Structures are given as C-alpha cells and as structure tokens.
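Team,

Forwarding the record for the chain on the shared tracking sheet. I've put the sequence and predicted structure together so nobody has to dig through attachments.
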Amino acid sequence: MNFKQISIAIYATYLTNKYGFKLKRAKTTQEKIDLKLEYAKTLLKKLNITIEVLNKEKIPKDGQYLLTSNHRSIIDPVIVEVVLQDSHIDGYWVAKKELYNSFFFGAFTRNAGSILLDRESTNMSSFFKATKEVVKEGKSIYIFPEGTRNKTNKAIAEFKEGSRIIALKNRLNILPIYIKTNAHDILKDAILNRTKDLKIQIEIGDIIEYKDKTPLEENYKRIFSLK
C-alpha cells in the first residue's frame, strides 16, 4: 500500500469509530438518523463518490418496509442511507455477528441500530423476536438477501429464503433497491487511484407485497431486468 492508500484507510477507520461513539451518546432517534446520514455523506465525499438515483420518484415518502438491496461492497449500507435521505423511512440493518466484533465497524454497527444475525445459531427465535420489536418501534428493516457480498461476475448472487420470511412474519411490503454500478470496483478505484468524480447509480424498484409468493430473487430479477 502506498501513502495515499494507507491514509484513506486510517481516515475511514477513524471516521467510522468516531461516529460509532457519537451514535452511542445520541439521545433521540432523529439525532441518530442525522448522524448516520452525516457519516455517510462525509465518507463518500472523502472518497470522491456521488450517488445518483435514476428513478427517485419511486422512493416512498414514509412507511415501513423490508428494504432489500444487492451487495457488492462494504459501503453499500452507506449508499442506501444516502438514497433514503429525502424520505422519512428509517430502519435497522440486519448485521452478521462478525460485524459486531469488528475493529472497523463494531462500534458503529452496535450503536447505529441493527439486528444481530448469528448464522451459526441453531435457534433463530431470538432473531425473529428482534425483528418484531423493531417493527413495533415503527422502523423498517434493511437486509442484503444474498447474505454476503457478491464476488461473482453475475449481477446478483443467489438470494437466501430468510428475507421473504422476515417480510411475511412482520407483514412488511418489500422495497427493492438495485445498486446498478459495481460499487466494489468504484471503491477500489477511489482508494487505489484517488480518482475524482466517481459515480454510483442506483435504481429503485416497485414495491412487492409481502403476501406475494413468488421467490424474491425471481421478483428482483424481473423488476430490474436482470438475467
């Protein structure tokens, strides 16, 4: 790694932990919402990345949803926060156990509002109980249906069944978001080359009713015309 790469890595770690502790001290829900958005904008600005939403009119102004997005990069949650900035939708991310213990993301993940998913657990009752509590608070739930980052050449990796179960159990209609640009490649360019004026395009899909029995992956591919 050269000096520029090291400096951006140190800055990103500092910024993430700084906002993690700010979130811990936040006294109101609105303060947390503002801090998450401030963090997202600050990080993306440092990376010289802008977010372009191709069909912004499809973003609901408010309501509760199971927000689903494809997943290629570690900045995908940050991207989603910026996409929703003009709406009144606020949600908890489903976060795997490893993120809670991460030096880089731990403090932020624990304090920003998240639902812990322990993939090694044989009993998922506590997880589904947590989703119900979040919905009872009036919040949405955000999830990556692929379960982990897609490192293949395909537009999306295989979706796990859990997302549709969450929607059904909590009667949450599904708000699909497609990160059209390969955000991993853009992030790599930002860090390695410090390229200016990088852009990530986002597409918003039509709402899917929670009662829809069509597999979520099939619906997602249809909505965004993916193969």
